[in-house]
Amino acid sequence: MGLSTRIAPRSRGKLGRSSLKTVIVHAVPLLIAMITVLPFAYVAIISVQHVFYLAGDPRLWLSHALTLDTYGHMLFDTMMGKWMLNSLIVAGSVTILGLAIYTGAGYVFFLNRSHRLVNVLFGFVMIGIMTPRMVTIIPVFMMFRDVSLLNTYPALILPPLAIPVGVFLVRQALFAFPMELVDAARVDGASELRAFRLVVVPLLAPSLVVVGIYTFMEQWREFMWPLISTSVTSMMTLPVGLSTFQSEFRTDWGLFMAGVAIAIIPGAAVFLLFQRWFLRGLTAGALRG
Predict the structure, then answer these.
(1) 22 & 76 share domain
(2) pLDDT tens string 9-60
(3) Within-domain flag for 63
């Protein structure tokens, strides 16, 4: 009896700590999920109402009549389709061209990492990554203005290709790459370019998907450079076009939020489509390590 009396408090203490740990383990992810979902829920609620004043009280979020006219008006009575096409062209072109440039440059930097000059050049790449874009945006604007390329697709596509984050990511991914396979291809008579195309690129695909999704999402939501480089409505990208619906005196926030909801769909679709590859690319280095 005495032994049971001595053990019972310890058992209750362990049970209490276990229960508290279980609550924390489940409550923290739930809280993070709620914080993440709340903005999307707010957009969805406001987008089905004609709201001209954003109420801070959540009880007033559904104070107007619900309607899907906001989506119909945004899709068929505005230039939403043209803006979305522009964003797809720009983001898709930057992603495809960027992957080709980043993969080739990253591979070259990795193979020649023991050369001092190559390391100096890679240092400039790192400086380019760390330099704020606001420092270079005005000189780049003046360059494109002087050659009369503003309000064109090249003006929207070419400057983002000079952002070298993808070069760094590809080079780092190659540190976990089995270079013995490339050596075997060379022994079999494959040229450097053929070994790169048939061996390196396919096995590096998961990491390239991560770089591609990152590049696409960055360009899909890019606002500052398209705002500066375009003044013609038909050449605006989606974020810039949506900003024209905001007015200092009267803004149909329901219509605006409908556009925001539509703008979320392509990016979410790209992530969901390549989710399996994305997760594989994130864990590739850890699994090989």
Answers:
(1) no
(2) 555 555 556 677 777 777 888 888 888 888 888 888 888 887 776 655 555 6
(3) no
Residue 287 has what pLDDT? 43
10 and 87 share one domain: no
Domain that holds residue 198: 69-288
Question: Which CA distances in Å does 63 have to 51, 174, 219, 239, 246?
Answer: 9, 55, 36, 28, 21
SS3 call for 219:
helix
Give which of 44, 50, 64 is closest to 254, Cα–Cα: 50
Structure tokens at 280: 């594989």
Give the total number of structural domains in the chain: 2
What does the mean pLDDT of the chain come to? 82
Q: Does residue 26 sit in the same domain as residue 125?
A: no
| Measured CA distances, 67 to 44, 62, 98 (Å) | 12, 11, 41
Calculate mean pLDDT across residues 211-233: 90
pLDDT at 288: 46
150 and 144 in contact (C-beta within 8 Å)?
yes
Q: Could you tell me which of 135, 226, 222, 218 has the C-alpha nearest to residue 169?
A: 218
Reference 102, options 234, 201, 238; nearest CA is: 201
> What is the Cα–Cα distance from 10 to 196, expressed in whole angstroms?
63
Share of the chain above pLDDT 70, in %: 84
Q: Based on the number of CB atoms within 10 Å of its own CB, is 240 exposed (0-12), middle (13-18) or buried (19 or more)?
A: buried
Between CA 147 and CA 142 the distance in angstroms is 9
pLDDT of residue 280: 65
Contacts of 80 (CB under 8 A, 6+ apart): 74, 238, 241, 259, 262
Query: What would the two tokens of residue 198 be?
Result: 């048939």
